[in-house]
Amino acid sequence: MTTTVQEEDTVTAGSIRAPWRIGTRGSLLALTQAGTIRDALIAAGQPAELIVIKTPGDLSSDPVQKIGVGVFTSALRDELAAGGIDIAVHSYKDLPTAQDPRFTIAAIPPREDPRDALVARDGLVLGELPAGAKVGTSAPRRAAQLRALGLGLDIVPLRGNIDSRLRKVSEGELDAIVIARAGLSRIERTDAITESLEPVQMLPAPSQGALAVECRSDDPELIEILSDLDDASTRAAVVAERALLGELEAGCTAPIGAIAEVVESIDEDGRIFEELSLRACAAAIDGSDVLRASIVGAPADAAELGRTLARELLDLGARALLSVADEPEPEVGSPTQAVNTPAPDFTNSSPMENNR
User: Fold this and answer.
1) Do 2-110+210-230 and 116-203+331-348 share a fold?
2) What is the reported pTM?
3) What are the start and end residues of every segment in region (Disordered) (predicted)?
């Protein structure tokens, strides 16, 4: 199902060209994200409009872990392949790690803040939450890292879109939630944040906060136009993080965190050059173990840096942790259940909004 949201025509050399059709999901967050691409194209003299497309993730109340990888992107890609739209805008972390040769990620715009954010009652920060406080999250990655902090928090599944999640805190159903800061920023709700969680506390999901602007690989004109929206530093960071995820053969819901940054360094002769710093972790879902590793190298080698760091995590035992994460959650009170950090059944959470 598709719906045209807005159309903008630009007159060029006495003619009106058809607007580029940008496919997006219909949530507030998705519309806001796609709207930034539409506005950037219009500012560059390229007419553009938004086309809303319903995806299985919008139509199902099942969790993303159950529906599967690509739940938020498959319908957009089907419409793109069929020629119903010219451009698809995705939250990059929703894309499957395997590349599809039919499509090209023509642009990765400057990334929003990739950190996770805490929204807590009474303005509390994470360290101030009392033992037993109910903290909601829909992501196994966040749940695992929260348990690993040893704060004795009660981690519970989180359902609904951004507004409904925020209400669970304001109405007292939960003491706090953990959510992607980028989502709150894009819909101008950063006022709700009580703490932005630093990577030392919680590593974000690979490519969190980044957008993928995708078009058909056989459309060189559009690829060239969209390339002006690309940010080289963001692309290098995302390539490294996604290469790590791919080498680990893990999907977007796995308890894996990663963050890459292009930073300036100074060599022995005092010359400034750029390096890519990549940090990553793989966690046991019950928080009993977190493996961490890091690497630094040239931005041009982003993909190889990601693969190398993934192999280091595998050497440290990441495969065993990820295998456990794929198994059913242990029952509360079982010997494998963390005593002070119960692991609830996250198969009851809903993917209604892409802010995992």
Assistant:
1) yes
2) 0.84
3) 326-356
Query: Could you tell me which CATH class the domain 237-325 is placed in?
Result: alpha beta
- Residues 280-308 have a mean pLDDT of 97
91-103 pLDDT tens trace: 999 899 889 999 9
Domain at 116-203+331-348: CATH code: 3.40.190.10
62's tokens: 């099942």
Q: Which residues of the chain form beta strands (DSSP E)?
A: 2-7, 11-12, 15-16, 20-24, 48-53, 87-91, 103-107, 116-120, 134-137, 154-157, 176-180, 195-197, 211-216, 256-266, 272-283, 290-297
Q: Which residue ranges make up each domain of the chain? A: 2-110+210-230, 116-203+331-348, 237-325
Q: H or E segment at 181?
A: helix 181-186
For residue 27, give every residue at least 6 positions away whose Cβ sits within 8 Å of its Cβ, in sequence order, or none: 58, 161, 352, 353, 354
Rg (CA), the chain: 21
305's tokens:
């840096």
Q: Which of these, 199, 165, 218, 183, lies nearest to 33 by C-alpha position? A: 183
Task: Report the CATH superfamily, name and number, of domain 2-110+210-230.
Answer: Periplasmic binding protein-like II (3.40.190.10)
Catalytic residues: 94
Task: Quick: pLDDT tens for 214-267.
Answer: 999 999 999 999 999 999 999 999 999 999 999 998 766 789 999 999 999 998
Per-residue pLDDT tens over the stretch 286-299: 999 999 999 999 99
Q: Give the DSSP H or E segment for 308.
A: helix 302-316
Q: How many residues does the chain have?
A: 356
